[in-house]
Amino acid sequence: MKQRGTAAAPSAVSPAGRRAARGAPKRRTTGRTGQKDGEGRVVTAGESWAQGPGGGSVVRRILLGSQLRRLRESRGVTREAAGYSIRASESKISRMELGRVSFKARDVEDLLTLYGVADETEREALLGLVKEANIAGWWQRYGDVLPGWFQTYVGLEAAASLIRIYEVQFVHGLLQTESYAHAVVMRGTPDATRADADRRVALRLERQKVLVSERAPHLHAVLDEAALRRPYGDRAVMQGQLRHLIDISEMPNVTLQVMPFSFGGHSGESGAFTMLRFPESDLSDIVYLEQMTSALYIDKAEEVQQYEKAMKRLQEDSPDPAESRDILRGLLQLT
Asked: pLDDT tens-digit profile of 70-125?
């Protein structure tokens, strides 16, 4: 980490800044297979947007980071030069701009000065975001059972105005009953203690409160019939879960569809995925793909568009909500 006055400062103006007409720098990919840097992001268990001191508001961090990136690029300042100005590395600037770390007010003040932001109103607005970005989310108290890479998703889910999901393995966490959730947790983490399992279930139930909150998002879920037929828990657990889905599908902010086996192949053949949309106009839609020990967060427009098309086809090809409720009732009778 460089200190002020200990080395000559690198040139603040990048080649991209001198050739602004050529547009923004191209997104780059790291040397690790599948891990992307820039607009398409892979978050692993070892490096997460939600890690770092204090956790904080995921969405506010991303918003602040994206604004700092735009200011830096508009001034043609390199990441290296930006890092030097706050006694940090180029990689630290990259993590800040991606919203992966918490922010220090002094660092943001120094960067705003470097980027030529002199207007006090604009500076105060951005420094206000620093305070909001460093507020710990409610999910932080579940850090003992919540992987860092999933903390990011919980924060984004809580801030979304539209949540669209396709699920094939089991009923999505936002739609699970307590008994079903416990069965899923015990199947997925068989070595977990009863206390840890209870904590994981409590976290899942806490997440569900977003659906009945004052600013509840709209949830549009497409559940593959396989997710409804695969047993988790005993017969009573599955019956309770199916009844819950029938009830929750009547909520005004929930649209629930079932993709039946009888349809055959469909656009969700690549597996489960979630799409999140936010009320903030500065934030693009994010596609969330969960893996065993990490997660992929996609926000590159052309990639998101492919998932948008797949989701639209799933919704069009699945029976409508009323017909889907009939399917659920039929499955309940068979269970």
From this structure: 999 999 999 999 999 999 999 999 999 988 788 999 999 999 999 999 999 999 98
Q: Which helix (H) or strand (E) holds 171?
A: none
Is the torsion defined by CA of 245, 166, 44, 103 positive or negative?
negative
- Write phi, then psi, for 190 (nearest 5 degrees): -65, -20
> Domain locations in the chain?
56-135, 138-334
Beta bridge partners of 249: none
Instruction: Give, in order, the Cα–Cα distances in Å from 223 to each of 25, 120, 181, 187, 315.
Output: 40, 50, 16, 20, 10
The hierarchical CATH code for the domain 56-135 is 1.10.260.40
- Given a contact cutoff of 8 angstroms between Cβ atoms, the answer to whether 161 and 279 are in contact is yes
Return d(Cα 264, Cα 328) in angstroms, integer.
18
pLDDT tens profile 203-234:
999 999 999 999 999 999 999 999 999 999 99
CATH class entry, domain 138-334: alpha beta
